[in-house]
Design a protein that fits this description.
about 240 residues; Alpha-Beta Plaits; 2 domains; five-stranded antiparallel β-sheet; three-stranded antiparallel β-sheet; 8 strands; about 45% helix; globular
Length: about 240
């Protein structure tokens, strides 16, 4: 008996769109992973001194954050399924991919963005000077509160951003920044403001320690795109 070999043919007309969909799925999953990186807004040392009402408020905030991330996860799962369903139609998939590609670029910090949010100004004084760790605390708080875009002294904060202390300066994205530090955050201004203003929250904590901080709401914030290169040094 002669063995019959099955020949699988690849539709070359659909190959580019298939590859593009694969790339877009990777970007969506990557963004989902970033959104799961939220920092705790409650320090263990403060738990014992918090009242029951404060604990209830903190728990409610975390429950809301969990629900928001869960909804985003479901939304992105649905988008991936939509890509797979539309792979047969190059026209529909092309329009969808262009829309999602632009959205992915925005979320990754590769485009200039505008919107409502808050502006926090931090100023060094003789009593207290800000460090990279202080800025990271603020950025983590803003991310946890749902900020969609953040910059410090016009340096866009992206997943690849490094914030370090070098001598007496803070380096962000390889650029030296100095006081005053202007932190812009685009998102729900009410939620962002309340997240920083709660008792024993970021503003309360740092003002009590002698730091100079102010915060304002702005309905027309512009945050410039990330100017550096996004590279992966360890992922293979």
């Amino acid at each position: 008996m002669n063995d019959k070999k099955k020949i699988f043919k690849i539709d070359k007309s659909k190959l580019p769109i298939s590859i593009t969909i694969g790339i877009m799925c990777f970007i969506i999953v990557y963004i989902m992973c970033i959104q799961f990186k939220t920092a705790s807004s409650i320090e263990e040392s403060n738990l014992e001194t918090m009242r029951e009402s404060e604990l209830r408020e903190a728990l409610a905030n975390w429950k809301q954050e969990y629900e928001d991330v869960k909804k985003e996860l479901e939304s992105n799962k649905n988008k991936i399924e939509e890509y797979q369903d539309r792979i047969a139609s190059n026209d529909e998939a092309g329009e969808l991919l262009e829309e999602e590609y632009n959205k992915a670029k925005m979320l990754l910090g590769l485009t200039d963005v505008q919107g409502a949010g808050i502006i926090i100004t931090l100023i060094d004084n003789n009593e207290a000077q800000f460090t990279s760790e202080n800025l990271m605390d603020l950025i983590n708080e803003l991310n946890s509160a749902g900020a969609e875009a953040i910059s410090v002294n016009d340096q866009r904060i992206v997943p690849m951003t490094d914030i370090v202390d070098v001598d007496n300066f803070i380096i962000i994205n390889g650029k030296r920044v100095t006081s005053p530090y202007t932190v812009k955050a685009i998102g729900d201004s009410t939620y962002l403001q309340s997240a920083l203003s709660i008792k024993k929250g970021y503003l309360d904590k740092y003002k009590t320690d002698g730091y100079t901080i102010s915060m304002t709401i702005d309905n027309n914030i512009t945050i410039n795109k990330y100017e550096g290169e996004m590279t992966l040094n360890y992922v293979k």
